[in-house]
Automatic annotation (TrEMBL):
Keyword Iron-sulfur belongs to the record: yes
Positions with a binding annotation for iminosuccinate: 25, 42, 121-123, 142, 238-240, 255
Name assigned to this protein: Quinolinate synthase
UniProt remark on cofactor binding: Binds 1 [4Fe-4S] cluster per subunit.
Family according to the record: Belongs to the quinolinate synthase family. Type 3 subfamily.
Subcellular location: Cytoplasm
Upper taxonomic lineage: Bacteria, Bacillati, Actinomycetota, Actinomycetes, Kitasatosporales
This protein's UniProt keywords: 4Fe-4S, Cytoplasm, Iron, Iron-sulfur, Metal-binding, Pyridine nucleotide biosynthesis, Transferase
EC code: 2.5.1.72
PANTHER family assigned to the protein according to its UniProt record, in alphabetical order: QUINOLINATE SYNTHASE, CHLOROPLASTIC, QUINOLINATE SYNTHETASE A
Length: 350
């Protein structure tokens, strides 16, 4: 990265001292990660920020829903800054508050709403988390999705899983022993979600039709091709990948799981990883004694994660050092209250 920008970021950060705490998501660029005080997945980062009440400014190098979650979990006094407001998440954007309210009305009309427990993936807007809290549901991450579903099926007969259909389906089928026929997909762009009342009554898992634009691009061909290209390879993918990809892989797990699996791997072992490219490259560099390849070379970075680059970070830090607080992400108190209810339910999962 540009040595001038590196020096400016370092100077602004030094001037701010303990007043600033920089969070770096695993999918961020190296040029940004070098300035992170901690790295992690979205949930770990939000908790790390909450554990630093002396930091007035939390600079969140990640995407919008993550900055919202950090605002929800941090104190009133702490301000969360997103260095580029255009860093959204296409998956989170696939479920809006209006669409989900319409879906719920339909569940009410079909006479099933009383038996439905919403489970929302961490990768969702604060509005969707608040909807989940209002209706007695829970948030989940890719690490605790199984426990979240076990809990939800103790509370009710059906789950409405938002917004990632793949994580929902993979967890239901692989971990809960449900069949693909127990799952239906609610498409917010079709009248009535494209589902009849009978279909809703018969379903156990109602999956929102959302997906990750990075993980959703790995295909069964990606897996077959890498097995030919790298004999003896172990294929390890994130559960946001399509069901057929997850079924064809050798191992499946969250970002933190992938990192730990590679730490524990034997020298000389060969791995194909199906997750975001910045992380895969960093892992390959960190483990020169292992052969680590990207599952599909035609799949690219998460484009919105990559919007946070060194120039944006420098701008955010220099603004803070000058006494201006740019790009503050705030969740209104009413939304925050119900979103926190759903997040607290996740923390209380058995
Ligand atoms: O796919 C993502 O963006 C993930 C896994 C985010 C996170 O850290 O929860
Ligand atoms: Fe959203 Fe996928 Fe990017 Fe994560 S990797 S921020 S889920 S689009």
């Amino acid at each position: 990265s540009d040595p001038d920008l590196v020096a400016r970021a370092a100077a602004a950060k030094a001037k701010l001292g303990d007043k600033v705490f920089i969070l770096g998501h695993h999918y961020q660029r190296d040029e940004v990660i070098q300035f992170a005080d901690v790295t992690g997945d979205s949930f770990k980062l939000a908790r790390d920020a909450a554990a630093r009440p002396e930091a007035e400014y939390i600079v969140f190098c990640g995407v919008h829903f993550m900055a919202e979650s950090a605002d929800i979990l941090t104190t009133e006094r702490q301000q969360v800054v997103l260095p580029d407001l255009a860093a959204g998440c296409s998956m989170a954007d696939m479920a809006t508050a209006e669409q989900v309210a319409e879906c719920w009305d339909q569940l009410v009309d079909a006479g099933v709403a009383d038996s439905v427990v919403p489970v929302a993936y961490m990768n969702s807007s604060a509005d969707i988390k608040a909807f989940t809290g209002r209706h007695g549901g829970t948030i989940c991450t890719s690490s605790n999705a199984k426990r979240a579903l076990e809990w939800a099926f103790e509370q009710g007969e059906k789950v409405l899983f938002l917004p990632d259909q793949h994580l929902g389906r993979n967890t239901a089928v692989r971990d809960m022993g449900l069949s693909l026929d127990d799952c239906v997909v609610y498409n917010p762009h079709k009248p009535n979600g494209g589902l009849t009342a009978e279909e809703l009554r018969a379903a156990k898992m109602i999956l929102w039709r959302g997906h990750c634009s990075v993980h959703g691009r790995f295909s069964l061909d990606s897996v077959n091709e890498v097995r030919e290209r790298v004999p003896g390879v172990t294929v390890l993918v994130h559960p946001e990948c399509k069901h057929e990809v997850v079924e064809a892989a050798d191992m499946v797990g969250s970002t933190e799981y992938i990192i730990k699996a590679l730490d524990a791997a034997e020298p000389g072992s060969k791995w194909a990883i199906g997750t975001e490219l910045n992380l895969v490259r960093r892992l390959a560099n960190a483990h020169p004694d292992k052969e680590i390849v990207f599952l599909d070379r035609s799949v690219c970075f998460c484009s919105t994660m990559n919007r946070i680059d060194l120039p944006h970070l420098v701008w955010a830090l220099e603004s803070l050092a000058d006494g201006r607080v740019p790009n503050v992400i705030t969740v209104d108190p009413e939304t925050e209250k119900f979103a926190k209810l759903a997040l607290d339910q996740m923390l209380a999962l058995p």
